[in-house]
Amino acid sequence: MKILSIETSCDETSISILECSGGLKKPSFKILANNLNSQIEIHAPFGGVFPALAKREHIKNLPILLEQTLKDSNLNKKKNQIDLIAVTYGPGLEPALWTGIVFAKELALKWNIPIIPVNHMEGHMLSAFGKSDGKFSIPKVEFPALSLLVSGGHTELVLAKEWMKYKILGETLDDAAGEAFDKVARMLELPYPGGPEISRLAEEARKSSKNLGRGVLKSIAQADEPSIANFQQKIMCGFQNTTNEIFNCIKLPRPMIHSKNFDFSFSGLKTAVLYLIRDLKKENPNILENIDVKKAIALEFENAVIETLVHKTKKAMEKYDIQTLIVAGGVSANKHLYNEIKKIISSKQKLLFPQKGLSTDNSIMIGITGYFRFLKNKGKIIKASSIKAQGGLKL
Ligand code: KG4
Ligand code: ZN
Fold first, then answer.
1. Which of the ligands is closest to the CA of residue 7?
2. Residue 304: pLDDT above 50?
3. Which of 30, 278, 311, 315 has a Cα-to-Cα distance from 327 of 20 to 30 A?
4. Ligand 1 in contact with 199 (CB < 6 A)?
């Protein structure tokens, strides 16, 4: 069957057409067309996604993307050959979600085909099995499976003992990991979205520390009394110091890392960065003009987030005897997260990360999930009028 999938939950408008076959036993996909329009440049001046603008852009882009997608797919234009429309109905920004849903309903009516509503987070989970073009099949998955879903709006550890049956083991009590990356980037005067920027600076800092061979990470963990005063003193010395010396003075908290549950919290970490920068600016208002300072903060912040995510994931894997680990959502594009997660995987366990281009929001993952949900519903048609945007939808 051919599924046209639509994603508009945040600042990406995306439409794809997937040829799906094989049923739940051997689901296989062929990407007939895949188009995505990112609104990053439009939201960047606001330092985050501006919902009214996102809605306006989705409304403008959806018809353009549809035309392009139908053209790319080489399907017969005169006769509709699409069997089903999959559309994200939550979680996300409600005004943005509604644009996709209304568009899907109009198309469904015009083509006289059904709609399957898709949970965006389930989409992220299944994105780990996808490809952005060509063909792919979903291999047999060994359960129990654990998913670490890390995006701009969510941070959750999800247990699955079988396909499509989920239990949320833990989630963030405040900010999501991606949100913390974005907010800290803003404090560091870096462009939106902050994740890739922080990660780039942290990576440079990590490399330079390795080149100098001084085991910065170790020294951060073991520093006797790493303190702001110490740091400020060095800065006031006119910055004769190496980036490494700066690193050694910064220590950020790893919130809830030793709590007994699987929940996360990133707002305290974000506030710690805020206070750190505030204190540094007291001594030198232009402190952020020094790239080494930005790199040092980016490195320690990234280490704090990733250490927390990996520690809790490891604990959950041990407790539930996990056979397959999926890491997905925008933050799964983070290289350091990948490197650290790899270290906790044994040779018997399977690790899945989405391919490049499928970590952040896309409609391929919505098409894959739409097919699974359609099969699970045994083809039962959902009344289009009952499909509503649900900003706070849970798995
Ligand atoms: O999944 P996604 O595209 O949108 C939501 O569903 O929220 O995730 C976007 C988030 C942003 O917060 C962005 O900063 C973060 O993913 N992100 C990263 C990286 N690339 C994107 N965070 C850390 N490191 C990255 N390389
Ligand atoms: Zn997302």
1. 2
2. yes
3. 30
4. yes
